[in-house]
């Protein structure tokens, strides 16, 4: 496993990180015992970065992760969770107010069985863009509340996340230098879309660490294929399905190529998150990352995706 510096945080994180969304049954049902074992498997095999959110499974992911973390020494992992996006009874809710995000941090710590969070993120800032105050509220209210918790030693570092990298850039440009220490962006450093690379210079200029997520582009780049709920347009889904079929013919699963691509080509990205509640899948993905990548197959897959490269969709 390779370990990289995350911006100027002083944290060294594994280039493959464990995204705990699957522990909330986000993609399909899980057995809690298996999910806990998946966390143990990840940490025991060199993964030291774990990311979660109260939104995943509407609190369930944090609760299942907490069952695992209580039996893992605190110095063996770097823990990231989020504020601002929640849910209840299957309905999404958003609250980026200073009071709510502050309470959210303490609630997360209780569920996670920890007394300290390494990185606290504002979750999916674009949704505040559709609420009163817009993204300016993130700058004026949400981030100052988290910075206060950082100053008090409750959290170590402050970050922001979003699907759209331009939103991350806007928040950073309108915040005091040093407020935002890391960003998490998903589906934009993968086989079908490397737009995140266009922003790396900006993030580096501000000393901000970069976390990439969803190397499988939320299932587009997988043998199983995109789930029905996937927001990608049909032409992109079809192109990725053709690419997956080609990889199968070559005896090289597109899942393998996808995770290798996202973790091996750009050391400026500190870590890439994948998610699985299955210990066997965790081991499989770790093995993939430690094998050399077929670069010629990358070229062929991107040719197959063709004019659907860089096609975007809205968060949901």
What does this 3D model show about the protein?
By secondary structure, this protein is of the alpha/beta class. It has ten helices and twelve strands. The protein has helices at 32-44, 60-69, 98-112, 134-151, 165-173, 200-205, 234-249, 254-264, 279-289, 295-305, and strands spanning 3-5, 12-14, 16-19, 49-51, 78-83, 85-88, 91-94, 117-122, 155-162, 182-186, 209-213, 271-274. The strands form three sheets. An eight-stranded parallel beta barrel has the order 3-4-5-8-9-10-11-12, surrounded by six helices. A hairpin with a 2-residue loop joins strand 6 (85-88) and strand 7. Helix 1 runs parallel beside helix 9, helix 3 (98-112) packs across helix 4 (134-151) and helix 4 (134-151) packs across helix 5. The model has no long low-confidence stretch (mean pLDDT 95).
Short description:
The chain is α/β, with parallel strands linked by helices and 316 residues long.
State the shape: globular
Rg from alpha-carbon coordinates: 18 Å
What oligomeric state do the depicted chains represent?
Answer: single chain
As a percent range, the share of strand residues is 15-25%
Helix content: 25-40%
Q: Characterize the main sheet.
A: 8 strands, parallel, barrel
Number of helices: 10
Alpha-carbon distance between the termini?
A: 33 Å
Secondary structural class: alpha/beta
Instruction: Determine the mean pLDDT.
Output: 95
What are the segments in which pLDDT stays under 50 over at least 5 consecutive residues?
none
Strand elements, count: 12
**Order of strands across the widest beta sheet?**
3-4-5-8-9-10-11-12
Order of helices and strands: EEEHEHEEEHEHEHEHEHHEHH
